[in-house]
Amino acid sequence: MKRKTTIIISIIVVSVFSVGGIYAYAKYFGPQTVMQTNPDKVNCRQGNVLDGVDRQARFTVLSTCEKVIGIVHDMTRTKQDDGDYQFNLVIQEPYKKLLNQGNSNHVNGMLVIEIIPHDQHSSVDRLT
User: Fold this and answer.
1) Which pLDDT tens digit goes with each residue over 69-106?
2) Domain ranges in the chain?
3) Fewer Cβ neighbours under 10 Å: the N or C end of the chain?
4) Contacts of 95 (CB under 8 A, 6+ apart)
């Protein structure tokens, strides 16, 4: 009887960890497909806008292509460990819709911009 109880408890524990692992993968690490909805092929990356992004499930895509105007801050001109270039942007009022509480809490209300290696040699990425 004790052996059966141990086996049942082991099965339950393995099941809980398996479900937790599947949830974590889907929520934090899994791939996502977010197709471009803007037909502007000159200024907007076409296809899956998250293609080449590390840990895609971290992101909620609010818009697949936006133009913003702002002042660049925290640009180091060096790549991060994952090969991305990252900087923050203080954006003007019409573009504040792109910000959320995370921007307020973590980067003083600025928009975080990352240019992934996939897009670093693209003519689409321009800073003007």
Assistant:
1) 899 888 776 777 888 888 899 998 889 988 988 889 98
2) 66-118
3) C
4) 66, 68, 69, 70, 111
Element spanning 41, H or E: none
pLDDT at 117: 84
Q: How many residues are listed for the chain in this entry?
A: 128
| Structure tokens given for 115 | 């240019």
Is pTM beyond 0.85? Reply is no
- Residue given tokens 């099965």 in the structure block: 11
How much is the pLDDT for 28? 66
Q: Closest Cα partner for 67 from 99, 91, 101, 51?
A: 91
Quote the tokens at residue 18: 């398996």
Percentages helix, strand, coil for the chain (3-state, rounded to 5) are 35, 15, 50
Q: What is the DSSP letter of 47?
A: S
Q: Is 53 left (phi over 0), alpha (psi -120 to 50) or beta?
A: beta
